[in-house]
Hints:
The protein is of the alpha/beta class. It has one domain: UDP-N-acetylmuramoyl-L-alanine:D-glutamate ligase, CATH 3.40.1190. It is 31% helix and 19% strand. A 9-stranded mixed sheet has the order 5-4-1-8-9-10-11-12-13, with helices on both faces. Strands 3-2-6-7 form a 4-stranded mixed sheet. A hairpin with a 5-residue loop joins strand 11 and strand 12. Helix 8 crosses helix 9. The chain is globular, with a radius of gyration of 20 Å. GO terms for molecular function: kinase activity. This is Sugar kinase. InterPro entries: PfkB_dom, Ribokinase-like.
Amino acid sequence: MLSDILHKIRAQRDHEPTVISVGQIWVDITMHVQEMPQPGEFTNAPSVTKSASGSFHVLQAASRMGARTELASIMGTGPWSTMLRDSLRRSHILHTGPTRPNQDNGFRIVLTDGMQKSYVAHHGAEAHGDPGVFAHVRPQRGDVVHISGNALMNESSLAVNAFIQQLQCRPQGREFRIVINPTNTLRLVNDQLLENLVLTRPIWSMNRQEARTLAYRLSVSFDESATMRVNAGFDESMHALCEALGETLRAPVVLRAGSRGAWVRQHGKGVEHIDGFPTKATHIRSAGPAHTGALCALLAEGWDLESSVQIANAAASLAIEHNHAGIPFCPTYDEAAKLVSDALTAPKKD
């Protein structure tokens, strides 16, 4: 989509726009190996990196795009929690949630040979709590609440379920937006929570695999015959999947596809394809969190969904290009806007 996005004026607010995440954060310990070991084999990891992970990347992206950001979930106390708090502070992310004493945040070991990845997770304070964990979350007009798939598992799902059933979260008259990127763990979410999420009518931001998982869970059928053809099959199948999910969910759907951009459907409207930006695949992690964080930041600023997705597409592309140790690193708003501006003013190819 080549829109007049660059001429938009940021909406006026009576308070600072805020992106609030109820997702979990933990530490990733990424071990780079030359070859994935077989059971019982020994291998050496020439390099190891430690980084904040989970919903941290969404909030970091939103912060770099100019939004005020808050983490509303549980944090622990201990060495991993200290590392995470330092990361939050450096990224100007405020922790507003409770602190669980005498328990550290969890960590995840990621083993990768550059092509394949294996994960082993140990949950900590972030995964525990009661249904009242998010009782303190009171979004104001225009704010954005981010729900990640990692918050839909273990005990934290009880808190998410309690939050979305509050009167303030009902779609009729809701003064703030809810954005959910469900991740592929959606296949494990219990039926009652999934039903309540659907009834909340959030903005669903997903990649193709996540969308197909959601379609399966909701018994949504769509025409995949286009994928059997050589030309244009992918685009047509993404259009069909986005349309089918949007019709069933009766809520906005953003279906991401990397450099191909995203397909967007708002309730009562047709599907719109918003172009992406070519990028060199030098990353070992998905740029989905960068896209989601940028999307949330722009929505909090009062942008419409289509224009927000346009800038988020650019932000995700640049995040891959500017990755830190293979982890996409979101650009600033100005950098993403420049990429869109360059695309809009570039001479059209014959």
